[in-house]
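Recall that a protein's primary structure is simply its ordered list of amino acids. Everything else, from secondary elements to tertiary packing, is in principle encoded there. The following example makes that idea concrete.
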Amino acid sequence: MTRFVFRESSRRAATIACAIVLILWGWAGWQPVSAATGPFAALSGRWSGTGIIRQQGGKTERIRCNANYRPLGSTQHEVNIQLDCASDSYKFDLVGQFHANESNQISGRWTERSRSIGGTGIGFARGKLIQIHVESSAFAATMHMATRGRRQSVTIDSQGGGAISSVSITLRRR
């Protein structure tokens, strides 16, 4: 009889302990971490869209773009980027490899293939926003990427190295 009481009270204690752990787990907001938690997870795939190029003199021109993002690794803290855009008089073909550390500070390398220039990039990711400042010996620009579901806004503000001062693009996942 003592054994039976011991088992019953052990079961009851275990049930209560499990209930308390589950309540505390939910109350504290502890959630299991998914494999795709990195800042580049939402980028995965092919995107296309249109935008506007603003030249330094104020002239604007429509541009068509295709992007391909390939997040790497199980934590999605690395990404290969390809952004190919063209208008009637302008073209750029940007590729890059970027890595985000645990604090979502971004670093990497990029190449603009149609002009054979390249350099480094540094930036950060916060929520759905990624900002990367890219530089080479003759060119610098800041790229902002905001992704919400199947839509992405990309702006690139140039700081020299050509007649283009900014590019604004809206992309949709294909």
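Strands lie at 45-55, 60-72, 78-86, 91-100, 105-112, 117-126, 129-135, 140-148, 151-158, 164-173. The chain has two domains: 1-32, 41-173.
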